[in-house]
Amino acid sequence: MSMFLDTAKIKVKAGNGGDGMVAFRREKYVPNGGPWGGDGGRGGNVIFVVDEGLRTLMDFRYNRHFKAQSGEKGMTKGMHGRGAEDLIVHVPQGTTVRDAETGKILTDLIENGQKFIVVHGGRGGRGNIRFATPKNPAPEISENGEPGQERELQLELKILADVGLVGFPSVGKSTLLSVITSAKPKIGAYHFTTIVPNLGMVRTQSGESFAVADLPGLIEGASQGVGLGTQFLRHIERTRVILHVIDMSASEGRNPYEDYLAINKELESYNLRLMERPQIIVANKMDMPDSAENLKTFKKKLAENYDEFDELPQIFPISSLTKQGLSMLLDATAELLDKTPEFLLYDESEMEEEAYYGFDEDAPAFDISRDDDAAWVLSGDKLEKLFVMTNFDREEAVMKFARQLRGMGVDEALRARGAKDGDLVRIGNFEFEFVD
């Protein structure tokens, strides 16, 4: 079984903020010492870092849950709890990170050492030293830490290569890669020898260099998932130039020109933008009988089916076995790369807007619904965050939470919906009676 893994779904959870502390200064010669409880520490973020030493997403095959540490609780003497260290997760170059729920792209990690915070840790709760006022110099109020963010992510690896080799199985892509680079792909006389992408670096005689990817052979229907399907096609999206390798000897009994049309149709069906990439046609196996005659027929059909205003793609006859014509092919590829810009992989509609970790001012502060047992259910991001950060072990904190609900208009809204004195109100697992 192949040990190459190019997709993974994982869950990440940032650390919660540490709880604030309720404490008082009690020293022999310090009368009326006052509050002395410190704030909790910040929860750890989960950060993705690009590691050029990684080639696959295999590390995520068995480890799918990543959780950062929570911050320490606040301490007496006004001391803050220690903030938690961030959790660093290494990913290979070319990893696209999507939100599994929305499908939006969070980031595209392509540079070695590039960092991205995928979930943010919660801030620490405030200790009672923060709530002292002239009216209430000894508050017994503290906050719980803010919950860390949590989300499910879809990781997708699209390998980084300047040039991609495409073509039907057994047209000689792996052999070509092995003679123009130091890569050692497994080569055999049977279909689908290549079941994982292989990468190699090419250096031309003029000193230019570029990365080439030999990708698993396409067959008709690959864009709909037939054969290796999209396992191959996603990896060509980052390439700037396509080398379309064709078996000009027709040794497999296929027509070279029909092969050319079929592969382009699959590329177009998968992603129309793949056809924007310039192609060089590599007429391989020219050392075989009938290859020269087949190449003449191929060129004639190609010219007949191209518009007179369209520029015909370059055709380079080669033999990977005898190394015939390779230097001209590589020089032309390097020249085409020099004048071909990077292709934008994603448009703005696919990207998630820059993350904002506060509250949407236009969003309602709370929502009211009715449960099956006739209890009133309060929900909403702002309200639920206030609830989680309230320390219900302290009466003053509970009263503060009640005042916050009243200030948000919860009482009035419940009354308008028909809530009566003694009705049950629920927030999460917490229940209380409505007092009119």
TrEMBL record:
GO terms for cellular component: cytoplasm. Residues 128-147 are annotated as: Disordered. Its cofactor is Mg(2+). Residues 161-338 form the OBG-type G domain. Its EC number is 3.6.5.-. PROSITE patterns: G_OBG (PS51710), GTP1_OBG (PS00905), OBG (PS51883), OCT (PS51881). One of its GO terms (biological process) is ribosome biogenesis. It holds the Pfam family GTP1_OBG. It is an enzyme of class 3 (hydrolase). Residues 2-160 form the Obg domain. Residues 358-436 form the OCT domain. SUPFAM superfamilies: Obg GTP-binding protein C-terminal domain, Obg GTP-binding protein N-terminal domain, P-loop containing nucleoside triphosphate hydrolases. It is found in: Cytoplasm. Keywords: Cytoplasm, GTP-binding, Hydrolase, Magnesium, Metal-binding, Nucleotide-binding. GTP binds at residues 167-174, 192-196, 214-217, 284-287, 319-321. Belongs to the TRAFAC class OBG-HflX-like GTPase superfamily. OBG GTPase family. An essential GTPase which binds GTP, GDP and possibly (p)ppGpp with moderate affinity, with high nucleotide exchange rates and a fairly low GTP hydrolysis rate. Plays a role in control of the cell cycle, stress response, ribosome biogenesis and in those bacteria that undergo differentiation, in morphogenesis control. HAMAP family: GTPase_Obg (MF_01454). Monomer. NCBIfam families: Obg_CgtA (TIGR02729), Obg_CgtA_exten (TIGR03595), PRK12296.1 (NF008954), PRK12297.1 (NF008955), PRK12299.1 (NF008956), small_GTP (TIGR00231). This is GTPase Obg. It comes from Streptococcus intermedius.
